[in-house]
Amino acid sequence: MAETLDHLLAESRDRLKAAGIETAAVDARHLISGLLGLSLAAIMARGGEAVDDALAARIRAAVERRAAREPVYRILGEREFYGLTLKLSKDTLEPRPDTETLVDCMIPHVRRIVANKGTCRIIDLGIGTGAICLALLDKVLEARGLGTDISEDALATARENAERNGLAGRFQTLRSSWFEEVEGRFDVIVSNPPYIQSKVVEELEPEVKFHDPAAALDGGDDGLNAYRAIALHADRHLEADGVIGLEIGFDQKQAVTALFAAQGFRLRDSAKDLGGNDRALVFKRDRECSSNR
Fold first, then answer.
1. Is residue 123 scored above 90 in pLDDT?
2. How far, in Å, CA of 150 to CA of 269, rounded?
3. d(CA 247, CA 8)
4. CB-based burial of residue 128 (10 Å sphere; 0-12 exposed, 13-18 middle, 19+ buried)?
5. pLDDT for 1
6. Cα gap 62→55, rounded to integer Å
7. Phi first, then psi: what are they for 16, rounded to 5°?
8. What is the pLDDT at residue 46?
9. Most buried among 24, 142, 154, 194, by the most CB within 10 A?
10. Nearest CA to 189 among 128, 231, 157?
């Protein structure tokens, strides 16, 4: 006799709990809903339904991967971000809810620029899955985006995500380390660069340390290497009324603000994530500094 969905859900929860997964119940629900293509509400409503043996085996295999500390969305191969479904790959950081804070912060600026110019040209440095840029394109139809990355795998993944979300016509990619291969100016520069100190990377949870790409995590000895690279060349690639939006680590607001101030930018906006930590900074040119250049 086939097992019911309720039975598999309870079994999965108990297996993950026994493996020391603190979010066992939540992870079990997300894994099973993802594998079945059902909403969380549907999972609960249809708990008495039978699950065939082949699907039950797939669920158990996925649960074992999670018990070994592989993240839920790595197992499923995709994740929702700002209303988009994004494919993950080996060279892409898994987009997380904290990064939606930066998108929230940038949408008004993109809309303001569109209102003034009729369009907005965005560059996303270190594109990864395409999460930030594609979310902005999805919310502002007049915007166009360019994503850069050093990884061909990440660039291909971002292009696929643009295609699957109907945004490919307004999105392009370029292989580049920060601004090295970039030409021209942009209305908006955005990035979620690596910002974790090298010594801290080894202390991260297994879900991050062993499954997110190191290049997307390690920000150098002080965690600020990428911000230096961006700040150093941002002026030559930013339009006069443009803005720069960055995700930061919880304790980096002061340091990143100082780096950009040294290059002639001032902090215009900032935002905290759902945990109350500083997470997004928005810079614009300091007109006094610009007039003295």
1. yes
2. 29
3. 39
4. buried
5. 56
6. 11
7. -70, -35
8. 87
9. 154
10. 231
* For residues 149-159, average pLDDT: 98
Q: Are 176 and 151 in contact (CB under 8 A)?
A: no
* Phi (first) and psi of residue 285, to 5 degrees: -65, 140
More confident site: 47 or 144: 144
Q: Are 197 and 131 spatial neighbours (Cβ–Cβ below 8 Å)?
A: no
Q: Is the pTM of this model over 0.90?
A: yes
Q: Which amino acid is at 288?
A: E
Confidence label for 8 from pLDDT (cuts 50, 70 and 90) = very high
> Cα separation of 196 and 222, whole Å?
8
Q: Could you tell me which residue, 39 or 272, shows the higher pLDDT?
A: 272
**Which residues lie across from 79 on neighbouring strands?**
86
CA distance 216 to 127: 10
Q: State the residue for tokens 């594109």.
A: 127
185: confidence class by pLDDT, cuts 50, 70, 90: very high
Residue 293: predicted pLDDT: 43
Is the Cα torsion angle 99, 104, 109, 115 positive or negative in sign? positive
- 211 CB contacts (<8 Å, ≥6 apart)? 70, 71, 74, 94
- Look at residue 47 in the predicted model and tell me its pLDDT: 85
Q: What is the spatial distance between Cα 114 and Cα 278, in angstroms, rounded to a whole number?
A: 27
Q: What is the pLDDT of residue 288?
A: 52
Residue 286 burial class via C-beta count within 10 angstroms: exposed 0-12, middle 13-18, buried 19 and up:
middle
Q: Identify the pLDDT of residue 270.
A: 97
Q: Apex CA 16: angle with CA 15 and CA 20, to 5°? A: 120
What is the helix (H) or strand (E) element at residue 158, kind and residue range? helix 152-164
CA atoms within a 13 Å half-sphere pointing along the CA-CB vector of 83: 9
What is the CB neighbour count within 10 angstroms for residue 125? 27
> Three-state SS string across 166-199, please?
CCHHHEEEEECCCCCCCCCCEEEEEECCCCECHH
